[in-house]
Every structure is written in C-alpha cells, then in structure tokens.
Amino acid sequence: MTNLIEIKGVTHAYRTKAGPLPVLDNLNVFVPEGEFCAVVGPSGCGKSTLTRLIAGLMKPDQGEVWLHGERVTSPRKTVGMAFQNPVLLEWRTIIDNVILPLEIVAQRMPQRDREERAMHLLEMVGLKGFENKRPSELSGGMRQRASLCRSIVHKPDVLIMDEPFGALDAFTREDLWQTMRDLRAAEPFTCVLITHDLRESVFLGDQVIVLSGRPARTQHVLDVDLPADRTIESLYTPEATDMLHLLRDQIRLAQGRDGGAH
Ligand SMILES: Nc1ncnc2c1ncn2[C@@H]1O[C@H](COP(=O)(O)OP(=O)(O)OP(=O)(O)O)[C@@H](O)[C@H]1O
Ligand SMILES: [Mg+2]
What we know:
Layout: E1 3-16, E2 19-32, E3 36-40, H1 47-54, E4 62-67, E5 70-71, E6 79-83, H2 94-105, H3 111-124, H4 140-152, E7 158-162, H5 170-186, E8 190-194, H6 198-204, E9 207-211, E10 218-223, H7 238-256
Parallel strand pairs: 3-8, 3-9, 6-7, 7-8
Antiparallel strand pairs: 1-2, 1-4, 4-5, 9-10
Helix pairs in contact: 2-3, 2-4
Magnesium ion binds next to helix 1.
C-alpha cells in the first residue's frame, strides 16, 4: 500500500516574543491511502500545528510533508478540513453550504450535478428534508453532519479533522462516529483525525498515533486490530479495552515528557 501522507523529519518552532517555541521535533507520520489515522496527545503538544502543515497552510522549519507523491509547499484544494466549530454560513441554506467547495474547485460542474452530489451526501448522513433550512435551525449534531458533507463533497484526497466531535454530547458523538464509518464505507477516503477522546480514536482509527508532550514526537503507534464492521459494542471487548488502557498509559507517559508552559 502506498502512503498518501508522508511527514518526514518535521521540526517546527513558532517565533514568539519570548523566543522560539519548539512545537514539533523530528516528527515522522505515514498514512497509507484509504487509511484512517487518529492522532492523540497532550493538550498543546502541536496537534493542530500538524494539521496546518498537512494542509499546506504552514511550512515546517525542517523536514518534508508529502501528499500523493507531491511535496506540500502551499495550500491544497485536495485537502478537506473539518473543525470543532462547523462554521456554516448562516445566510446560505444547508444544501448551499454543502455545495460551496464545488463552486470553488469544480466551477464547470453543472449546478444540477452539484445539487445531486450534495443531496446524496445529506441523505447518507440523515439530513434529507433539512436541505433548505438555515444552519441556525439545526441542532449542533446536525450542523456537524452538514459540515462533514461539505468537507468531502469535492472528494478530497484527504480529510483532516481537528476535534470535530469535541463539542457534542456523548450520544450524539457516538452517532456521528457511526456516520463517519458509513460515509467511508460508501466512498473510502484517507482521514487524519485529531481527538482527545481515546474511544473515538479506537472506534474510527486504523492506526492511532500518540504524540509526546511539546515539542511533539511520535510516542507510540497503535494498529487498531478490530473488525472493519465494528460497532460501539466492539469498544467493550477485551481487545478494545486493552488498547484503551495502553493508549491511556501512553498519554500519561507523553504528559510526563511535556516541556511545560512557555
Ligand atoms: N501561531 C502561533 N504562534 C505562536 N505560538 C503558537 C501558534 N499556534 C500555536 N502556538 C503554540 O504552539 C503550541 C502547540 O499548539 P497547537 O495548537 O498545535 O497544539 P494542540 O496540540 O492542537 O493543542 P490543543 O490540544 O489544546 O488543541 C501551543 O503551546 C500553542 O500555544
Ligand atoms: Mg488543537
């Protein structure tokens, strides 16, 4: 399997008034095409920085980021992003929000095809019938579903998600995890998910990367050996319980490595 994402020896420091703040330290991450890579690590260790580097929104001081065999040096249209806050445009309907990326990257696509594609996704995530509502008329979970559709409507090579389910209640979050798995079963795409939720990382991930405290290095890589058709119940099996314990221990270790407040 070829790697879709290759992060090789990436080191980065932010320039702050108090001097350089090292955030990533010789980080190596490899994500094969079609895989789901979950990333966990102590608060402030550099996870969001990593997403910005993959998206080409920043350049690392040292090392290289490769996507689909090309060196990433500038922002890419082939990367979809999703964040904790769904940031939908209030003056647009749900379907028009979902269509937005197509207006930018698929300018020649007929409007009818755009709408068909958006409706297909909205139906898949259970939002059929809400396409003409405004974002404020939907619940937080529904807004996040719409936002997910928007992130993948243009079929990006990779979807990068930075704590997308963090603001949702536990049950809504579990529903969204299942939706995420359904979406990927229907059209496989490579994913990088930043999360603080270890159960989420095991439920969704093919691999879970534990980053060390700042500056982040790879503390541990876990291959999630659970069935592809896993359900929430799979998280209560002895195998999953062992994985969750291991991840918890690794995060504790990682916190011990944290360079402390700057
Ligand atoms: N633009 C910036 N300039 C200076 N320092 C920054 C900048 N962005 C982030 N930092 C600092 O770099 C460190 C890593 O930030 P980052 O947001 O990548 O961490 P994180 O792992 O995503 O944190 P969290 O778990 O809280 O989301 C933090 O100490 C943060 O304060
Ligand atoms: Mg962050």
